[in-house]
Amino acid sequence: MEYTLSKLDAAVDQLDWAIRLFLDNKAYVPAITLAGAAEEILGEMLGSDSAFAQLKQRISAMSGLPEKVVTQLHLNRSKNWLKHWQGLRDEETIDLELETEAIQYIVRAVANLAGHDRSLPSEGPRFFSWLRANRAELYAL
Protein backbone atom coordinates (compact mmCIF):
# COMPACT_ATOMS: atom_id res chain seq x y z
CA MET A 1 0.00 0.00 0.00
CA GLU A 2 1.36 3.41 -0.96
CA TYR A 3 1.27 6.36 1.45
CA THR A 4 1.87 10.03 0.96
CA LEU A 5 4.48 11.13 3.48
CA SER A 6 5.84 14.59 4.08
CA LYS A 7 9.39 15.30 5.19
CA LEU A 8 7.98 16.87 8.34
CA ASP A 9 5.93 13.78 9.19
CA ALA A 10 8.95 11.55 8.53
CA ALA A 11 11.16 13.68 10.78
CA VAL A 12 8.63 13.67 13.62
CA ASP A 13 8.21 9.90 13.34
CA GLN A 14 12.00 9.43 13.42
CA LEU A 15 12.23 11.69 16.46
CA ASP A 16 9.47 9.87 18.33
CA TRP A 17 11.16 6.52 17.66
CA ALA A 18 14.53 7.92 18.72
CA ILE A 19 12.98 8.93 22.04
CA ARG A 20 11.26 5.56 22.50
CA LEU A 21 14.48 3.68 21.78
CA PHE A 22 16.37 5.96 24.17
CA LEU A 23 13.90 5.74 27.05
CA ASP A 24 12.52 2.23 26.71
CA ASN A 25 15.56 0.29 25.54
CA LYS A 26 18.63 2.44 26.22
CA ALA A 27 19.33 1.87 22.51
CA TYR A 28 21.54 4.89 22.17
CA VAL A 29 23.12 4.15 18.78
CA PRO A 30 19.85 3.98 16.82
CA ALA A 31 18.52 6.89 18.90
CA ILE A 32 21.48 8.98 17.74
CA THR A 33 21.05 8.10 14.07
CA LEU A 34 17.26 8.58 14.07
CA ALA A 35 17.34 11.83 16.06
CA GLY A 36 20.23 13.00 13.89
CA ALA A 37 18.22 12.35 10.73
CA ALA A 38 15.21 14.20 12.18
CA GLU A 39 17.43 17.06 13.28
CA GLU A 40 18.88 17.40 9.78
CA ILE A 41 15.49 17.42 8.04
CA LEU A 42 14.01 19.91 10.48
CA GLY A 43 17.20 21.96 10.49
CA GLU A 44 17.09 22.31 6.71
CA MET A 45 13.59 23.77 7.08
CA LEU A 46 14.92 26.39 9.52
CA GLY A 47 18.24 27.20 7.84
CA SER A 48 20.31 29.58 9.93
CA ASP A 49 17.73 29.43 12.73
CA SER A 50 18.33 25.72 13.31
CA ALA A 51 19.75 24.48 16.60
CA PHE A 52 22.83 23.20 14.76
CA ALA A 53 23.53 26.54 13.06
CA GLN A 54 23.10 28.44 16.31
CA LEU A 55 25.34 26.04 18.26
CA LYS A 56 27.98 26.05 15.54
CA GLN A 57 28.20 29.83 15.54
CA ARG A 58 28.11 30.18 19.31
CA ILE A 59 30.70 27.48 20.04
CA SER A 60 32.98 28.73 17.30
CA ALA A 61 32.83 32.28 18.67
CA MET A 62 33.40 31.13 22.27
CA SER A 63 36.23 28.71 21.49
CA GLY A 64 37.94 30.47 18.61
CA LEU A 65 37.79 27.22 16.63
CA PRO A 66 36.77 27.32 12.96
CA GLU A 67 33.15 26.30 12.37
CA LYS A 68 34.24 23.22 10.38
CA VAL A 69 36.26 21.95 13.36
CA VAL A 70 33.32 22.59 15.68
CA THR A 71 30.94 20.67 13.43
CA GLN A 72 33.18 17.74 12.55
CA LEU A 73 34.98 17.15 15.84
CA HIS A 74 32.23 18.10 18.24
CA LEU A 75 28.66 18.65 17.07
CA ASN A 76 28.37 15.91 14.44
CA ARG A 77 31.24 13.57 15.22
CA SER A 78 29.24 10.70 16.70
CA LYS A 79 26.40 10.85 14.16
CA ASN A 80 28.78 10.99 11.22
CA TRP A 81 30.92 8.17 12.58
CA LEU A 82 27.84 5.99 13.06
CA LYS A 83 26.44 6.72 9.59
CA HIS A 84 29.49 6.72 7.33
CA TRP A 85 32.55 4.63 6.62
CA GLN A 86 35.49 6.67 5.38
CA GLY A 87 37.64 3.72 4.37
CA LEU A 88 41.25 3.92 5.48
CA ARG A 89 40.77 7.43 6.84
CA ASP A 90 38.15 6.35 9.36
CA GLU A 91 38.70 5.07 12.87
CA GLU A 92 37.43 1.56 13.44
CA THR A 93 36.47 2.37 17.03
CA ILE A 94 35.40 5.52 18.81
CA ASP A 95 35.00 6.54 22.45
CA LEU A 96 31.64 8.17 23.11
CA GLU A 97 29.39 8.97 26.03
CA LEU A 98 26.44 7.41 24.19
CA GLU A 99 23.66 8.54 26.52
CA THR A 100 24.83 12.16 26.42
CA GLU A 101 25.28 12.05 22.65
CA ALA A 102 21.76 10.69 22.18
CA ILE A 103 20.37 13.40 24.45
CA GLN A 104 22.06 16.15 22.47
CA TYR A 105 20.67 14.94 19.12
CA ILE A 106 17.17 14.50 20.55
CA VAL A 107 17.24 17.97 22.09
CA ARG A 108 18.52 19.52 18.86
CA ALA A 109 15.77 17.81 16.86
CA VAL A 110 13.07 18.82 19.37
CA ALA A 111 14.36 22.41 19.32
CA ASN A 112 14.16 22.43 15.53
CA LEU A 113 10.61 21.08 15.56
CA ALA A 114 9.56 23.70 18.09
CA GLY A 115 11.29 26.35 16.00
CA HIS A 116 9.46 25.17 12.90
CA ASP A 117 5.88 25.08 14.17
CA ARG A 118 6.01 25.35 17.98
CA SER A 119 5.03 21.70 18.40
CA LEU A 120 6.56 18.79 20.28
CA PRO A 121 6.74 15.17 19.19
CA SER A 122 4.30 12.92 21.04
CA GLU A 123 7.18 11.47 23.09
CA GLY A 124 8.58 14.91 23.92
CA PRO A 125 6.93 15.37 27.34
CA ARG A 126 8.04 11.91 28.44
CA PHE A 127 11.61 12.65 27.30
CA PHE A 128 11.74 15.95 29.20
CA SER A 129 10.31 14.32 32.33
CA TRP A 130 13.07 11.70 32.13
CA LEU A 131 15.69 14.40 31.53
CA ARG A 132 14.52 16.41 34.54
CA ALA A 133 14.55 13.31 36.78
CA ASN A 134 17.77 11.70 35.52
CA ARG A 135 20.00 14.40 34.08
CA ALA A 136 18.95 17.54 35.97
CA GLU A 137 22.30 19.18 35.18
CA LEU A 138 21.34 19.15 31.50
CA TYR A 139 17.69 20.00 32.03
CA ALA A 140 18.58 23.28 33.77
CA LEU A 141 20.49 24.50 30.71
List keywords for this structure.
141 residues, mainly alpha, 8 helices, 72% helix
- Binned, the helix content reads over 70%
Give the SSE order as H and E letters. Answer: HHHHHHHH
> Alpha-carbon distance between the termini?
44 Å
**Count of DSSP helices?**
8
How much β-strand is present in the residues?
A: under 5%
- Beta strands, count: 0
The biggest sheet, with number of strands, parallel, antiparallel or mixed sense and barrel status, is: none
Structural class: mainly alpha
Radius of gyration, Cα only, in angstroms? 15 Å
Shape: globular
Describe this structure in words.
This protein is mainly alpha-helical. The protein has a domain of 85 residues. 72% of the residues lie in helices and 0% in strands. The protein contains eight helices and no strands. Helix 2 packs parallel to helix 6 and helix 3 crosses helix 4. The mean pLDDT is 91.
Give me a quick take on this structure.
With 141 residues, the chain is mainly α. The chain has eight helices and no strands. It has helices spanning 7-25, 28-46, 51-63, 67-75, 77-83, 98-117, 124-134, 136-139.
Q: Secondary-structure blueprint of this entry?
A:
Elements: H1 7-25, H2 28-46, H3 51-63, H4 67-75, H5 77-83, H6 98-117, H7 124-134, H8 136-139
Helix pairs in contact: 1-2, 1-6, 2-5, 2-6, 3-4
